[in-house]
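Re: [help] complex structure
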Amino acid sequence: MSQPLRLGIAGLGTVGAGVVQIIRRQAALLEARTGRAVVISAVSARSRDKDRGVNLSSYDWESDPVALAKREDVDVFVELMGGEDGPAKAATEAALALGKDVVTANKAMLAMHGQALAVAAEARGCVIKYEAAVAGGIPVVKVLGEGLAGNEITRVMGVMNGTCNYILTHMEATGQGYNALFAEAEKLGYLEADPNLDVGGIDAGHKLAILSSLAFGTQVNFEGIELEGIQRVTLEDIRAAADMGYKIKLLGVAQMTGRGLEQRMQPCLVPDTSPLGQLQGGTNMIVLEGDAVGQIVLRGAGAGAGPTASAVLSDICDIARGHRGPVFGQPAATLDTPIAALSKRPAAYYLRMTLKDKPGALAKVAAVLGEAGVSIDRMRQYGHENDQAPVLIVTHKTTRVDIGHALSAMKTTSVVAGDPVALRIEEV
Amino acid sequence: MSQPLRLGIAGLGTVGAGVVQIIRRQAALLEARTGRAVVISAVSARSRDKDRGVNLSSYDWESDPVALAKREDVDVFVELMGGEDGPAKAATEAALALGKDVVTANKAMLAMHGQALAVAAEARGCVIKYEAAVAGGIPVVKVLGEGLAGNEITRVMGVMNGTCNYILTHMEATGQGYNALFAEAEKLGYLEADPNLDVGGIDAGHKLAILSSLAFGTQVNFEGIELEGIQRVTLEDIRAAADMGYKIKLLGVAQMTGRGLEQRMQPCLVPDTSPLGQLQGGTNMIVLEGDAVGQIVLRGAGAGAGPTASAVLSDICDIARGHRGPVFGQPAATLDTPIAALSKRPAAYYLRMTLKDKPGALAKVAAVLGEAGVSIDRMRQYGHENDQAPVLIVTHKTTRVDIGHALSAMKTTSVVAGDPVALRIEEV
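Output below.
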């Protein structure tokens, strides 16, 4: 029988406590599946006294996660503290420096320091595994890095932030506006301490940056993402989109182009009959496209103690089984320096604007679009209220640049009130 | 640099040719991802002269797959011939006897001989990998065996035969009956040489048996499946189900119960708004449920050269990376002997029968159901034609046994014409 695999777990929030619980409850199953006992040597968290609903008395306690990472009786450092810098990064680096493997759920740390950590890990022959960092319980890191290893990946898409999808789908279901649903999500504890991480698309962007690296063999490049949150999506947009057969999602899209890596995380329209369009509430969905496999769709819980702990355990079992490999699918030294490419691929766009009640207003808008080279597929004008009329337009395929020109030109006319909204319609 | 991984590929149908194509086209990518060159030493197929659209001139040719398996320059025997016995099994056994790893897409062989082959492989320290045997391009074997390794699996479900789903969804879409769509599927080349493998549920049953073993730690037990094909599903059933908010799917379900392992592959009703209900055409979908992760849904192409070759390459890459492990997730010697348990868990049922135009006919049917302990949730009677009226009933939850009693009793009444139909409504 092999030696037990000895863990040091730093961070005992809901996920950390969930991991401890599974290791206690499923000890026999884990040993049968990996051929080794999986044991916890020591744990670390901010407060020792807090009741976490799990018996920690048989594990040593370390108040300092760096000290935990350095313990001789720790083979694998399990980092579940979070935060892109600070103790999480310091302890991870300490573990790697001593040749210990790391399992982490920390998307921010990997999105910002993934390349440096991968280099450090591979220099010592260590692995860093991070299934829990992307899309919670959905084993997308494994599917992308191993299950589709024979594919040239052509596109990665996904709804990767459950809170945003909860807000957007509940706006439509309840008819309440963004602010009301934001407040509800806050009350339900769905939002990060800094809510902008969620609604600003940053958390989802971290996940997209990690998947991009794995998919396209490039260094993680969070800064290269065209990032836009859901704060400006209105109930009117959601209803108008629904009227025309679409749903609005905070959608991540990554694609390698001849000009570089295109990464977008922004509200998009998708057909309401597509799997992405039908995704309700806090569930996550990842769509992976490869030259051989075609399209693979993965759906599951993107957060929560159980699903995230499930992902952490997947990584731990891989290490126990001796399944090792480079952090981002190929050696960090061979990953390309990413060239961030702004989206130039044509797409249809959804435009919403408010027209003032002036003669020829609609003709003026149509003329502006025509001059910018944007042609109209469908248009709806609703009735005037207070001398203003909402107008919705779905364009034929055009570029972001041409749309930008059209929007700028519209603001200089005297017939459009306020800022027009433009959302990309993604072909899924 | 590590030694190249040398393959012998037996079977050059669409999948085999697809595998050769990917290995030729993506040589650099595969080497970057696995750290080793992946090369083909020799190939084997029935006819040497056939044009397969891929250049085979640089590989040795073996007319005998057993000889291919035994070659010194073959590290991994890739079995893509199919057939549960015969050359596929003989060559696989020959490879294992010499300590060579095996990659196979052969669901029939694994469903019938999986345990013996696993024992043989593990005795020699070999692996048998078979991602392509279940659900084509969907990496469900990897997700179940590795991605959810921290979970006690509570249920496995899925639409695993694209041809059956094609027939069922096109019956509804076109209003044609089963026979017409069967003929169309045949014309399109969607059916196996023995069509009963598809429409009789056998092919899908093979896949379910393999997933069950992996999920529940039991020996593969194809014979333990309650198996029923789609041949008796009528257009009337599909329309009536749609009327009541359901779709009919050939659905595989495996669950461990206190009485043993329940495995069913049969036409079932699922809500039309569920991911399974929305699955159109030849696409496959697998739903995995675990105690920690909740529900994970995987969707993708279940057949075809590209998707299946993608799965074969995933296995080859795993072996190239040194990712090894027991064939069915834990050592074959520790797999439980399965106890096949017929389904006793209560479910709602859909019943369709034809009533003769006699006074009190409906009352008689209701009485028979009541006597069998089956209570009615919803009932619809349609108008009489030729003195016969179709009646649809959705029951409250009841057992298969009680439904059986009710159906038997109905046939002894003088008011029901022909055989009543009962389909389980699966909670998904």
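The longest strand of chain A covers residues 246-257.
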